[in-house]
Design goal:
299 residues, alpha+beta, L-fuculose-1-phosphate Aldolase, 7-stranded mixed beta sheet, two-stranded antiparallel sheet, HTH cro/C1-type domain-containing protein
Length: 299
């Protein structure tokens, strides 16, 4: 397993530092001055100067890298660019070269050919790729779950049917675009228990509430269900949340939609139960971690 960040550290940075060190020496800077500008030791500068550091020819010969090195060397030598400004310029260049299909992305895919298994159109470095989007959702969800697991007292907020913390992709259309905990979150002998890692398409009920709220204009990408308690509603309202009631005895999606249309700013939905239906509160938020923090604030 090799991450693109390893290629940046092991190949890109040594190559660019070597090029910059050489360019600065050509502009009359001493080894000591080059070391100060680049934030490295004089011995490192000496190694760069004598070719003792392995560099990557594909990076060194890239026109954009060459142009950046020339511009930064001129600016650093003349004092028109500070080392911090140069650092920022290089950071921007790295992000550009990590973009789907670009130089660092190509080097990464060459180093990890298994990435090809995701299809010819897939780019792990494309911030809008389905895989990266899904992984960001799952990462946020795992963070939120850790918050709940470590929140002393969360178990008293778990309803009899169990809780589920869910989060969806930006363009979520159905439950398959919503990730949650298979089997829900339960109280087992006073311990918050998450039975398995979050997955997409495993939550139907809380996912339905979240999707219905989004379809009717709610700016939410995550949600959780907790036990119903008027005092909890009051506490959420005190924290700035707008609450709205819906009826879960009929069509849940339609009822949630109507509630959002009546209270467009609602971030807390609730129903007070019915025949065979446990009363519940649903807290909505921009991401799973934010929702979990809201719940922790209630404890």
């Amino acid at each position: 397993m090799q991450f693109v960040e390893e290629i940046v550290v092991d190949e890109f940075l040594p190559t660019v530092r070597s090029l910059l060190a050489g360019a600065l020496r050509e502009r009359g800077l001493t080894q000591s001055e080059v070391a100060g500008v680049l934030g490295i030791s004089q011995s490192a500068v000496s190694k760069y100067a004598h070719g003792d550091v392995t560099t990557n020819d594909r990076i060194a010969n890239d026109e954009r890298v060459d142009a950046h090195v020339t511009e930064l060397a001129d600016g650093l030598a003349d004092g028109d660019i500070t080392p911090v400004q140069a650092l920022i310029e290089i950071e921007v260049l790295i992000r550009d070269l990590e973009a789907g299909g670009d130089l660092l992305a190509q080097l990464h895919e060459d180093a990890v050919p298994e990435l090809a298994e995701y299809g010819s159109s897939f780019r792990v470095h494309d911030p809008e790729s389905d895989l990266r989007t899904s992984e960001r959702v799952l990462s946020s969800l795992r963070g939120g779950l850790r918050t709940l697991e470590n929140a002393s007292g969360f178990t008293r907020l778990i309803p009899a049917v169990g809780s589920n913390l869910v989060a969806c992709t930006p363009d979520a259309d159905d439950v398959d675009d919503v990730a949650g905990v298979p089997g829900r979150i339960f109280d087992v002998k006073g311990q918050t228990t998450v039975p398995s890692s979050p997955e997409f398409g495993v939550s139907e009920h809380v996912a339905t509430v979240l999707l219905a709220a989004r379809r009717h204009g709610a700016a939410a990408s995550a949600a959780i269900n907790i036990t119903y308690d008027p005092e909890l509603l009051d506490a959420l309202a005190e924290r700035g949340h707008v609450t709205a009631e819906f009826d879960e005895e009929g069509d849940v999606a339609s009822s949630v939609g109507a509630a959002i249309e009546d209270e467009p700013e609602a971030t807390v939905l609730y129903q007070t139960g019915g025949m065979g239906i446990e009363p519940l509160i649903y807290v909505l938020g921009p991401d799973a971690e934010s929702v979990a923090e809201t719940i922790r604030s209630l404890i």
